[in-house]
């Protein structure tokens, strides 16, 4: 009996032992990078792999929900950073060069973290009325941004109010709605109007939208709200300047249930929130 015990070599830690617990990871070659005793003790449990062993195999799984929850928290943080960067800029009319740079960098961080937008799979995200809270093109001090438009300031007594986009994914209607205040000679009060630039839209890629202009309707509000709306005649195509073809493209670079970020075909960055 004694000779039998001495003739049997002891099992090493790297060999399979049938007497070890079926849930022990030390009985299997897990193929993880070697760590010192100190580094193993300080290893972050939230990021570590969970070792699950059976009689015949060992599998490693990531702790449930950790990466998705971390990414969602990061996206929420980056979205807040962008909204903070564009707040107080009067929709971009008061933006300096430094403000434009900060807003663009914050938008790029959010776009990179959230990943590509696929509207082809979820077009309903566009549905609704969106309020413009920032446009990088408004820093040019024209209501048309990088496109032709009336200037703001003392040359024309025009004050820009709220700007909205109303999108209907079923009818493919895409309306830009602009509230304006038009100055009048003293002692007449200013005239408040709402201009609706009606478009049709189509999805030309997973995240690219093409809009085609149809008509402009102007409706007085305030004290003159009883007046009927006025449809502004469309400029014939032969007299339309090359820079104003009546259509345009933009890409939706980020969208969720309450925030949308777009980049226009002329480099314009816009940020919208649900109205």
Automatic annotation (TrEMBL):
Highest taxon of source: Eukaryota
Regions of compositional bias (Polar residues) in chain numbering: 1-11
Keywords: Plastid, Transit peptide
GO biological process, one term: chloroplast organization
Location of the protein in the cell: Plastid
Keyword Zinc-finger included in the entry's annotation: no
Protein name in UniProt: Plastid-lipid-associated protein 6, chloroplastic
Keyword check for Membrane: no
Transmembrane domains' residue ranges: none
Main subcellular location: plastid
PANTHER family xrefs: PLASTID-LIPID-ASSOCIATED PROTEIN 4, CHLOROPLASTIC-RELATED
Pfam family for this entry, one: PAP_fibrillin
Region feature (Disordered): 1-45
Every Plastid lipid-associated protein/fibrillin conserved domain range: 77-272
GO cellular component: chloroplast thylakoid membrane
Skewed-composition ranges (Low complexity): 12-30
């Amino acid at each position: 009996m004694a000779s039998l015990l001495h003739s049997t070599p002891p099992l090493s830690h790297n060999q399979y032992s049938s007497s070890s617990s079926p849930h022990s990871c030390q009985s299997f070659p897990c193929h993880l990078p070697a760590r010192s005793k100190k580094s193993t003790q300080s290893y972050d449990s939230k990021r570590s792999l969970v070792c699950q062993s059976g009689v015949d195999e060992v599998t490693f799984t990531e702790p449930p929900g950790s990466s998705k929850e971390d990414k969602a928290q990061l996206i929420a943080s980056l979205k807040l950073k962008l909204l903070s960067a564009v707040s107080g800029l009067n929709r971009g009319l008061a933006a300096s060069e430094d403000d434009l740079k900060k807003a663009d960098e914050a938008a790029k961080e959010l776009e990179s973290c959230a990943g590509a937008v696929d509207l082809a799979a979820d077009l309903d995200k566009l549905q609704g009325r969106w309020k413009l809270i920032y446009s990088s093109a408004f820093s040019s001090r024209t209501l048309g941004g990088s496109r032709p438009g009336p200037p703001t300031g003392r040359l024309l007594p025009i004050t820009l109010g709220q700007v909205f986009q109303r999108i209907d994914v079923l009818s493919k209607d895409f309306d830009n709605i602009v509230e304006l205040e038009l100055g009048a000679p003293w002692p007449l009060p200013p005239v408040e109007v709402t201009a609706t630039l009606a478009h049709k839209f189509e999805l030309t890629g997973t995240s690219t939208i093409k809009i085609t202009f149809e008509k402009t309707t102007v409706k007085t509000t305030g004290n003159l709200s009883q007046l009927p709306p006025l449809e502004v005649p469309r400029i014939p195509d032969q007299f339309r300047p090359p820079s104003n073809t009546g259509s345009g493209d933009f890409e939706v670079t980020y969208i969720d249930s309450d925030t949308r970020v777009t980049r226009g075909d002329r480099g314009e960055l816009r940020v919208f929130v649900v109205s």
